[in-house]
Amino acid sequence: MTNMQDGADFSDLIAAELPFLRRYARALTGSQSGGDNYAIATLETLLQGRSIFEDLSIKVGLFKCFHAIWTSAGAPVGDDGEGIVGRAQTHLAALQPNTREALLLSTIEDFSVADTALIMDISRDDVRQLIATARKDMEGSISGSIMIIEDEAIIAADLSAIVSDLGHTVTGVARTRTAAVELGNTTKPDLILADIQLADNSSGIDAVNDLLKDLGDTPVIFITAFPERLLTGDRPEPAFLIAKPYKEEQVQSAVSQAMFFASTETLKS
Q1: Alpha carbons 143 and 160: distance in angstroms, whole number
Q2: Which of 108, 142, 195, 245 is least surrounded by CB atoms within 10 angstroms?
Q3: What does the pLDDT profile of the chain (269 residues) look like in tens digits?
Q4: Phi, psi of 121, rounded to the nearest 5 degrees
Q5: 239 vs 241: CA distance, rounded Å
Q6: Which domains does the chain have, with CATH numbers?
Q7: How many degrees, rounded to 5, is the angle at CA 9 between CA 7 and CA 10?
Q8: Where are the alpha helices (DSSP H) in the chain?
Q9: How far is Cα 25 from Cα 63, in angstroms, rounded to an integer?
């Protein structure tokens, strides 16, 4: 390790990456509490020693430590989920080991194949095979209707094209909180893809929370330029976040993951 990684400096570097580890953990477990339990276990392990960071970047080392704990626990899929989460857990039990992990690490968390291989302690060829398998299993398992809450026309059109190419139907695009609530209650989508800041300076978070009062068990993906601001641990948080500017494969992965696992945890105003 470098001197920059000693003492308080090391803690600061870990803290800067922790929101992204929590996002990854949440996507794996499908819940804020479940994901945070693994994140806490990772931090507790790091208190015992930092040897895992030798020759690794802070972020790669942090995720590698998490993955060692996750796999040692058997990458568990709970059997006590209710509603849509319970149904998703049944799907997850049938997936090949490590496929979702490889897909999430390489797309949502934007690790290279080489770094993903280091984190998972497998070969690069194995990573590529796992990603391909995950895409096939997830994208072919569930299709449905998707509503988009986005005030920028170009981005809305791009998102519509991406989800349509995955085989989903776009129910419509809303640019404001009021329009979103009206559209959602009319079309009752299977998934909501929502920006945070809307055209009339209203909040996409508020729009989603309004909708879920009536729609209930509906998965949501939030889009934001500052995902770390939504992962503070202070309140219920979204399981699925796409950071702007996004890549097409990040949207593809998040949509497939959300439709497959379908956590309904959202931010409260």
Answers
A1: 14
A2: 245
A3: 444 445 558 888 898 899 889 888 887 776 677 888 999 999 999 888 888 888 889 999 999 999 999 998 877 655 444 554 455 555 555 667 788 899 889 888 889 999 999 999 999 999 999 988 887 776 665 678 999 999 999 999 999 999 999 889 999 999 999 999 999 999 999 999 999 888 888 888 889 989 988 887 788 898 887 776 666 655 555 667 888 889 898 898 888 877 776 544 444 43
A4: 60, 50
A5: 7
A6: 3-138 (1.20.140.160), 143-261 (3.40.50.2300)
A7: 70
A8: 7-29, 32-48, 58-72, 83-93, 99-106, 113-120, 124-139, 153-165, 177-187, 204-215, 248-261
A9: 10
Q: How far apart, in whole angstroms, are the C-alpha atoms of residue 73 and residue 13?
A: 26
Q: Which tokens go with 157?
A: 């059109």
Q: Are 192 and 150 in contact (CB under 8 A)?
A: no
Closest CA to 109 of 261, 266, 246, 259: 246
| CB-based contacts of 173, cutoff 8 Å, min separation 6 | 148, 149, 150, 156, 160
For 96, the enclosing helix (H) or strand (E) is none
d(CA 188, CA 182): 10
